[in-house]
């Protein structure tokens, strides 16, 4: 057997560089590169290996470990999980900084390879700098935090172990059903150890899209359910995008006049002005979608895990309604007592369409045209509300909706909006008009504050020919903004809109909706010195990191600044003050947020009474 002597770190890098993926007939590197913040746990081993492989596997310097992992995750999402990145850190805070990002990737079913350094496998120098010691178990380190938020975890305690571990990690990252973060903890002494690796281990491998065909019995059960339905509704989830089933979904809905609502991850599956489009569903849903869902007798969920915002805390599907779940993951397909069709969305829709086309030709299929007409009327009414909410009123203190309207009108069809947490995702879900399947990128599975700017960087790396517009509140900006500097350093232009409502406006509204007094959310309601909290000059802060930036007031100034931002050749930040109170309540449905059973506030007691009544809508 032919072998080559390499350190474990060198072998790992060489293996990653040998992984490719075929997309539309083109062979591309599976890994775009490696984000790295070096420390004593990875600089000598993995850092040296990466230095010699820059042509095959580029290394990108970031400013925050969580931020770089967010960027890597966003890159994978923007590539429909076809391509991805790796991230490496030192053994202590650098590693644990990535745990939040790992959880985000896990929740959203997105691939990222995490390579945190680790303490010495030999334990001879213990305790080393940054080592977390467990008094009862010396095998536990800080990296064990990754176990519950990784689809695959391994600690490489011998250099030869990567021969079996790396292929499993790659298989996890590229598996549509099991996709998520893979973590390989790398003890710093093992990184530097050498081994005679088989040359065959490094032969280039081309990965292809795995498409799970449906079980024919399950398929025919779903066919029967559709045949019985008079008022079907489709909920399109992120799996429609990841399966690249946009055309199949469009054809299927048009063939049978089925209206379509979209989750956060599914938004853009149909253009906003498509005749079958009903907009967003659930708690942040449109009146059109939620009203239609109430009237439907069959709900077909495609590629969604049906979290509580989508199902309105399990009140969306009623006893008289049939739920079908088309999902490549069995874990998701069987949720909510659904009739499951475990299959790739593209393949499932192709086979369903063919079956019903045959029935249509044989005149065995009845289509209720009135049902779509009713849904379309609902959507006409909703679009009027959207136009009203997003129109300018001439006020200098804008609502989030008015800002979104101005930005939406200023962007091109192929521009991409990026957002994550707070009130903005709800407003975007309801109000943003998406005309391109890639035009909407909102992380709302983990609703992670701080994802926005770093995620925008990852999206820009994936789609360099498109403008990326990041919508971020002042709270999220304060949590994680350092990747503005990374975007400038890498020449990856972002347009960042900072909406400053002086606090956590979304949670302040929720707090009061639950009967609570305004407390510790808006800066005015926080414990401060007599002069109050400082007024943050976000434009000056962004300028300090190399961006072009300006502060504006009102729609007219915002629109002019957006034109300048579009014409600029580097990251451009626009900040403005916004109204923390008003939000688009129209269309939203109930969300289960537990209210205290006992309180000294009458408002809380009243909210609890309403809560108990609302919970009776839930099936169990």
TrEMBL record:
One of its GO terms (cellular component) is acetolactate synthase complex. It holds the Pfam family TPP_enzyme_N. The keyword Hydrolase applies. Residues 46-130 form the Thiamine pyrophosphate enzyme N-terminal TPP-binding domain. Residues 422-574 form the Thiamine pyrophosphate enzyme TPP-binding domain. Residues 221-352 form the Thiamine pyrophosphate enzyme central domain. InterPro entries: DHS-like_NAD/FAD-binding_dom (IPR029035), Myo_inos_IolD (IPR030817), THDP-binding (IPR029061), Thiamin_PyroP_enz_cen_dom (IPR012000), Thiamin_PyroP_enz_TPP-bd_dom (IPR012001), TPP-bd_CS (IPR000399), TPP_enz (IPR045229), TPP_enzyme_TPP-bd (IPR011766). The keyword Hydrolase applies. Keywords: Hydrolase, Thiamine pyrophosphate. One of its GO terms (biological process) is inositol catabolic process. GO terms for molecular function: 3D-(3,5/4)-trihydroxycyclohexane-1,2-dione hydrolase activity; acetolactate synthase activity; flavin adenine dinucleotide binding; magnesium ion binding; thiamine pyrophosphate binding. Its EC number is 3.7.1.22. PROSITE patterns: TPP_ENZYMES. Belongs to the TPP enzyme family. This is 3D-(3,5/4)-trihydroxycyclohexane-1,2-dione acylhydrolase (Decyclizing).
